[in-house]
């Protein structure tokens, strides 16, 4: 499967994108046969509808895509993509119609081509689009390719996407872009002072590890840290089956940072990029860490374990502390960290935290232009006491259930001293049901907004 647009040199059917209001004017300029066909077919220009127009030989000679009303389009991230499944397989070029945003609609079209075929063949039914005039086709293809990689990583089951396979995915990326890569695995994590990564992952069949990729030798230092919990049983605080069903996606933070790293390298941004992924499985065995344990982190801060199902912040803490030692100009963490974030903003929005108003403003503005919605949340200082237990420096799971996403973000911030600027994204990385341009399953969130914001944030 290719993320590319159709070549403009290949034959392509003209596609007319029509709103209900524009349909009448368009029909008035068409032949009697076309007018009769459209009327008989009941095509009205409604969002998500399409119609093939036959020629005299019965073969399609054009196609119509319904673009709906402004109110309908406002409810969709990629309105044009809603019509793609209703079109016949083939190649198309935009012939008429005013798109709200040609780049966004073209990207949504590319996203609609995604199929996850590792375990089940999907019929070849591609509907390829010639890149609309004026769009940056290379940039859109770069984003689509990274999105497909992110979705593939999240959708792959844990039996095939454990810490070893996640390491291999990063190694493939390093090989492609001639990046440097190192991995610290198993007992070496203890020897090199990553005790919490080791503690969370030591019960699993595959050894825990810290994956470290570096690329670029000039420009600002950008460090990405992605939560790579390849499966989360909850540990000894075992999740119920209903909550464990999609825990293959608990490495969604890692998948998103891998996709973002690919976009940064493919775009040739003048940065010194670093990607850190603590890759573990939170499993149950005789060596599992326990509720009530007190772990010592890389920074020396002690952490009381009040719930082994709050493991993501533990592995991120060691990785963040390590990344901050390199004094990056910007450090970003991405993680499927808390259910509280989903309660707060639902599955579509990616909440993020930062103390830097300029970073927040640039990311929020970029999110609007990239159809990649985010929402700023507060590092609310009065809640710091909630993560300070009696017998240790920090609590990994404050009781009470209030402000869970905020307290998790505050926990992580304690480990970022040394980074000039820091932002944390508490993402879901999962599409609960299919939507235009977004198939059910793994999903990239926030990475396109970050990519678009980086040049302004870093003065590139």
Automatic annotation (TrEMBL):
UniProt domain Cytosol aminopeptidase: residue ranges: 307-314
EC number(s) from the headed UniProt entry: 3.4.11.1
Keyword set, alphabetical order: Aminopeptidase, Hydrolase, Manganese, Protease
Key word Manganese present: yes
GO BP annotation list: proteolysis
Keyword Manganese: yes
One Gene Ontology term of the molecular function aspect: metalloaminopeptidase activity
A GO CC term assigned to this protein in UniProt: cytoplasm
InterPro entries named in the record: Leucine_aapep/pepB, Macro_dom-like, Peptidase_M17_C, Peptidase_M17_N_1
Group of enzyme by EC: hydrolase
Similarity comment: family membership: Belongs to the peptidase M17 family.
Name listed for the protein in its UniProt record: Leucyl aminopeptidase
Organism of origin: Sagittula marina
Taxonomy of the source species: Bacteria, Pseudomonadati, Pseudomonadota, Alphaproteobacteria, Rhodobacterales
